[in-house]
Design brief:
Shape: globular
Oligomer: single chain
Helix content: 25-40%
Distance between the termini: 15 Å
Number of strands: 7
Number of helices: 6
Radius of gyration: 15 Å
């Protein structure tokens, strides 16, 4: 499925398509990006039979020493049996800080920009899968991974996750949906 444009208006359809495809494939693990918790709450309703990992921005992303997802939202999501991880971006992290200060070529940022050729949401779906793998919330089996462009969700993938140190073992098996224009 291809959306005419990226953004939060695609969230409900992205999650529905991902849930349908996940059921068809017998998927048991789902990773979803969520900064405020809104997308996570919608995902909880659709993926109730799956192990759901919610990935959010690292502490300090917007404001130093402040979490992006409110503590009460995180606690509520976790009370529903879902895991919430806040982690540095797998495809930027410290390298973005170095790039701001020094000019040069930075491989991880090149990988991120290459993935953005398929759209920001696709890059995010890959990135949160890596972050979830590094946090220890995945088994290594194929998963559904969901990302977005700014807010909400607009891309869903079936992929074999990998850790950062084995990034090139990651495999995008299917693109369930993504924006056509971005």
């Amino acid at each position: 499925m291809y959306f005419d444009k990226p953004g939060r208006d695609n969230t409900d359809q992205t999650l529905t398509l991902a849930a349908e495809r996940g059921k068809e494939l017998g998927m048991e693990e789902v990773v979803v990006a969520s900064s405020s918790g809104k997308t996570a709450y919608k995902a909880i309703q659709l993926f109730d039979a799956c192990r759901l990992t919610v990935v959010t921005y690292h502490c300090g992303f917007k404001e130093p020493f402040k979490s992006r997802i409110p503590d009460e939202v995180r606690q509520d999501i976790e009370s529903k049996g879902m895991r919430v991880i806040a982690s540095s971006h797998a495809l930027s992290g410290v390298e973005r800080s170095v790039a701001k200060k020094h000019s040069g070529i930075y491989p991880v940022l090149l990988i991120a920009d290459t993935l953005r050729l398929l759209g920001q949401g696709t890059k995010v779906a890959v990135e949160v899968a890596i972050m979830a793998a590094d946090a220890g919330t995945l088994t290594g089996a194929d998963i559904i991974s969901i990302g977005g462009s700014g807010s909400g969700a607009d891309a869903a993938l079936v992929l074999k996750p990998a850790h950062q140190n084995n990034f090139f073992d990651l495999r995008i098996r299917e693109i369930i949906c993504k924006p056509r224009s971005f």
